[in-house]
Amino acid sequence: MLWKRIFSLPAGTKVFVGGAFFSEEGRGIFRSLPQKPLVVVIYDGDRKTILLRSIWGGRQKNEYWNRYTLPALIGGSIAMLMTSYIMMGTPFLRFPSLVALCLSVFPIAALLPPGVVFYFLYTWFWKRARLLRAQRDLFRLPLRYFEASDTWKQVPYEEQIVSLPTREPYLLTRRPDGIVGEELIIRDGGMLSLPEEKRGDYYLFGALKQSSRRLIERPQDPMAELVLVLGDPVLLSKACSRRARRLELLAALFIFSGLAANLLLVLALFHYLIR
After folding, report:
1. What pTM was computed for the model?
2. What is d(CA 186, CA 188) in angstroms, rounded to the nearest whole number?
3. What is the maximal distance between C-alpha atoms in the chain?
4. Residues 76-81: what's their mean pLDDT?
């Protein structure tokens, strides 16, 4: 939601702020810039859960429904109703007026029987596609530090170390030798159910502690993870995108099928009533 819609926050509210940071008169100030708007996460619970909960909960239930959708539907419905009323008095415009009258019920057409069955199928497929999109983001999440480095293009899938914003050395390796911390997250294929030969190698991401024996722990940076991905993150993320796209197409097919069936029935009903 927009910040201007938040009027007050109770004392002690936990927030995590990301954006441009400036020093003015000895004070640190966050400012929202046109090319880099501030992101404020209001949360409760453990700070270590911010990342996962933001990705799972931050994606909208339907990206096509926004603050303009409802006014547009209501405005279109009223316009079609007025158009139908104007044309109804002209005999040779009878059928176009019935079509306009039929389209005026478009905002609720999907919720009418029998097309409402298709609506529930649409929501089921869309929800699964949304979960796959979030899972895709989780697979690619630890790669963002390495893809931004110059060495990624040269040797993209060998052991690499980059520096986190907290100055911790962050490791990507296919050889998880050494001691791994107890807070390890294991991320498998989830909803994909891919066979092992299509997943690729396993990859471990974590903060490398300098000691006599290699120790890989959870970073202090709450935006980085100690995670073992059971497969190639790039391959898994692409598989999630492909499957999500197919499910979204199925969802669109069902919602438009239900709308078409209901609108035809409404058109037949209006034609019977207005004779």
Report:
1. 0.80
2. 6
3. 92
4. 92
